[in-house]
Amino acid sequence: MSISINERTFALHTKNTTYMMQADAYGYLLQPSYGRKAILPPDYLLVKKDRGFSGNPYDALKDRTYSLDVLPQEFPFDGSGDFRSTSFSLHTQEGVYGCDLRFKKAEVIQGKTVLKGLPAMREVNAESLEITLEDSFLHLEVILAYSVYEDVDIITRSVRIINHGQPIIIDNIKSASLDFVCGNYDVISFYGRHTMERIPNRQAIQHGIYKVSSKRGTSSHQYNPALILCSHDATETSGDAYSMNFVYSGSFEAL
């Protein structure tokens, strides 16, 4: 099985890798690890210690060891006390900003998750997981869909929003997020021009935000919609490397 569920821990297994998620005691969906194949969740990576001035959810009360500002999240959102770059932000017509997404349910589906009206990879040996997060106040659901192609070490990801409540304005939504708790990495992106596409640009990750994007309505040959995060010593044939690629051509932002 390429997808395993143990209580509220979810693991996506390809031939050589494991992508793990965990709904914690408060219902927030965390992302403890993504890397070499594993069986047990790496709980040791979720270190509990006094976080000082980092905000925490109301549920945590005076627990200064819990803050979404430092925890690795699967789908970070505005309004949670996380002041990093988030994947989802919205506001209502009444001026309410942010949301509070908690785990609701998970379902394993045979085959590829259907994206109506959009092309997708073939369903050869694919298994899918859909995780539903809910904001009970706004009556809003966010469905995170993963399809695992075990034989080729690929996991596809998509997000869809279902609004059962009042009208909302989505200010920002991103297809995916990777949240690493440790490691020193290089980032590789690809720039170019007509007849000279995908020229690699590699540099060490420093403080601040590194971003590539296109506002042309297409992904364009100026910047390819892909990023690779890799160890400093990674080469074409060895080392750790994590890659994300936006499938559909269009304006995009990757950071």
Word description of this protein:
By secondary structure, the protein is mainly β. The chain has strands at residues 3-6, 9-13, 17-23, 29-36, 88-92, 102-110, 126-135, 140-149, 154-163, 168-173, 185-193, 196-204, 212-214, 226-231, 241-245, 252-254. 25% of the residues are buried.
Averaged pLDDT: 89
Strand % is 35-45%
Question: Could you give a short account of the major beta sheet?
Answer: 4 strands, antiparallel
Poorly predicted residue ranges: none
Instruction: Give the proportion of residues in helices.
Output: under 10%
Order of helices and strands: EEEEEEEEEEEEEEEE
Strand tally: 16
Across the major sheet, the strand order is 1-2-3-4
Structural class: mainly beta
Tertiary shape: globular
**Count of DSSP H/I helices:** 0
Q: From the alpha carbons, calculate the radius of gyration and give it in angstroms.
A: 19 Å
Summarize the structure in short.
This protein has 255 residues and is mostly beta strands.
Task: Please write out the topology.
Layout: E1 3-6, E2 9-13, E3 17-23, E4 29-36, E5 88-92, E6 102-110, E7 126-135, E8 140-149, E9 154-163, E10 168-173, E11 185-193, E12 196-204, E13 212-214, E14 226-231, E15 241-245, E16 252-254
Antiparallel strand pairs: 1-2, 2-3, 3-4, 5-10, 6-7, 7-8, 8-9, 11-12, 11-14, 13-16, 14-15
Please give a handful of descriptors for the protein shown.
255 residues; mainly beta; 4-stranded antiparallel β-sheet
